[in-house]
Amino acid sequence: MSVNKVILLGNVGKDPEVRYLDTGIAVATLTLATSDRAYTLANGTQVPERTEWHNLVLWRGLAETAEKYIHKGDKLYVEGKIRSRSYDDQNGVKRYVTEIFVDNMEMLTPRSASAGAAPVATPQPQTPPASSQPNVASQDNSTTEDLPF
Q1: Are 57 and 32 in contact (CB under 8 A)?
Q2: Which domains does the chain possess?
Q3: Residues 87-129 pLDDT 10s
Q4: What is the DSSP letter of 141?
Q5: pLDDT digits (tens, 9 = 90+) for 23-37
Q6: Cβ atoms within 10 A of the Cβ of 66, count?
């Protein structure tokens, strides 16, 4: 048995590049940056922040979603598989590429914060009118002894 599963949480490095195959299937490519924070070792040595760049490949519906809603700087959670390939460049030099083929994606940037995102109507939870809200008396000397936890 073997497992090829990748989970990444990071920031989009550039707007997705989307192309459509002759069959009408959408394919999107974009980069995602993940960073390890800087820290100081016990002996005082400072280790700087380290950023890794990942090449993402999205197909079909995920690619179409990326085209509409994902922009540079957005926070993104993805799950997928690592795939490696090689090709010969224009000078005949063999190049190697490692890509993440995305199976699942969650957009974590709020729509209002996403640059240029098209507004999408989503149902908002209904709040009861103020008259049906229970009255809560505010106290300046509130204590934590009244809390149930």
Answers
A1: no
A2: 6-114 (2.40.50.140)
A3: 999 999 999 999 999 999 999 988 776 554 444 433 334 444 4
A4: T
A5: 999 999 999 999 999
A6: 26
